[in-house]
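Is this the right way to post structure tokens for a design question? Let me know if I should format differently. Anyway, here goes:
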């Protein structure tokens, strides 16, 4: 069903985004990657999608704080890979501070990247999905869109809003027989950002990386296990499949029961 479709995935050079790219490419989707990394890493990952799955894969380095670059991302995807059939709003920035110490520029960046970019990308791609009679939109929310932790106000607010954005667009497309809009809410996922924080924790406490990882995960997820990015990617691929075309307007946890734990 997905063979020949085109998926645009923001923040997709590593972690959940690249896991989604692999899962969708496995189903035959052409892929447009987006994000920031070393040029050699980007090219290696782009080329791997093509060689491993026999699909077209492109890359666009749009700065999602800039509307003009978002517009160019969508236009370039259509002209080089194909019109966007699947949109995965995954890009995120994270800041850590209590609200009274939160920098206004950090707040604005989080709104721009985590939320407003998704609004613009849906605005720019939904019309084409309607014309072609197929569309899948998946917003990457979080367990912290359902619950909360201290010093994460930007993340909590923007991830909660992505769930609302999915509901709002789902009700606007309710009469479309083959367009769905959903959010997913991962728990603690083994991403490059998480691994960076674990290394910093190990260094600050003078413990091994393995010990720091156990402490990091146990403080977040009662199962004390990371969720692997590939599992999140597979959930995204399922939501894009024909089997899931009646699932729309939902927010689905993938969190080892974190959000229902006492």
């Amino acid at each position: 069903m997905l063979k020949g479709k085109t998926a645009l995935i923001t923040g997709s050079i590593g972690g959940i985004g690249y896991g989604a790219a692999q899962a969708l490419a496995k189903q035959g989707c052409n892929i447009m990657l987006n994000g920031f990394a070393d040029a050699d890493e980007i090219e290696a990952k782009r080329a791997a999608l093509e060689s491993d799955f026999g699909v077209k894969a492109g890359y666009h380095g749009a700065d999602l704080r800039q509307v003009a670059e978002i517009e160019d991302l969508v236009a370039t995807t259509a002209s080089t890979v194909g019109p966007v059939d699947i949109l995965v709003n995954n890009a995120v920035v994270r800041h850590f501070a209590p609200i009274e110490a939160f920098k206004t520029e950090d707040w604005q960046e989080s709104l721009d990247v985590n939320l407003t970019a998704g609004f613009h990308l849906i605005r720019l791609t939904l019309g084409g999905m309607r014309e072609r009679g197929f569309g899948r939109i998946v917003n990457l929310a979080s367990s912290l869109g359902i619950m909360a932790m201290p010093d994460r106000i930007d993340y909590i607010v923007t991830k909660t809003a992505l769930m609302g954005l999915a509901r709002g667009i789902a009700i606007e497309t309710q009469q479309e027989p083959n367009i769905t809009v959903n959010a997913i809410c991962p728990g603690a996922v083994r991403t490059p950002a998480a691994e960076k924080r674990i290394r910093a924790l190990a260094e600050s406490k003078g413990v091994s990386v393995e010990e720091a990882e156990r402490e990091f995960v146990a403080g977040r997820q009662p199962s004390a296990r990371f969720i692997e990015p590939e599992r999140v990617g597979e959930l995204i691929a399922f939501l894009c499949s024909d089997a899931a075309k009646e699932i729309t307007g939902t927010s689905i946890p993938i969190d080892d029961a974190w959000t229902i734990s006492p």
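Format looks fine. Someone answered above. Worth noting: The chain has a mean pLDDT of 96. Residues 6-188+230-257 form a domain with the Rossmann fold fold (CATH 3.40.50.720).
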